[in-house]
Amino acid sequence: MPNPKRRHSNTRTRKRRTHDLMEVRATTACPTCASRDQYVPLARHRVCPVCGYYRGRAVIQVKTKDKKKAK
Ligand SMILES: [Zn+2]
Questions:
Q1: Cα(47)–Cα(26) distance, integer angstroms
Q2: Residue 38 alpha carbon to ligand 1 centre in Å
Q3: Contact predicate 48/32, CB 8 Å
Q4: How many domains does the chain have?
Q5: 58-63 contact pairs (CB < 8 A, 24+)
Q6: β-strand 27-29 against 41-43: which pairing, if any?
Q7: How many A from CA of 71 to the centre of ligand 1?
Q8: Of 68, 36, 63, which is closest to residue 49 (Cα–Cα)?
Q9: What DSSP string runs through 27-49?
Q10: How far is the CA of 14 from the centre of ligand 1 (A)?
Q11: Containing structural domain, residue 40
Q12: Is residue 53 part of a domain?
């Protein structure tokens, strides 16, 4: 079985892990929601969970509280 000859120093491990940080995902405002004076931070290239629009087109139907009251 292959085994390491010497242990790594703490510094060597920590230096390697300086590159392991996760990046903050870039967000944009949903153009449909923004036109309704509502700022919704939105991940890029994703359907807006509030209005269900993507690239100016309704892609999914979003359930709202108003519809539940109508039933
Ligand atoms: Zn939206």
A1: 15
A2: 8
A3: yes
A4: 1
A5: none
A6: antiparallel
A7: 25
A8: 63
A9: EEE-HHHHTTT---EEETTS--T
A10: 41
A11: 24-60
A12: yes
Q: Is the pTM of this model over 0.85?
A: no
C-alpha angle 37-43-45 in degrees, rounded to nearest 5: 105
User: Is there a domain that residue 32 lies in?
Assistant: yes
| Count of residues in the chain | 71
* Cα(55) to centroid(ligand 1), Å: 10
Q: From the CA of 52, how far away is ligand 1's center (Å)?
A: 6
Beta bridge partners of 53: 58
Residues within 5 Å of ion ligand 1 by Cβ? 30, 32-33, 48, 50-51
Q: What is the pLDDT of residues 2-58, one digit of tens each?
A: 999 999 999 999 999 999 998 888 888 888 888 888 787 888 888 988 888 898 888
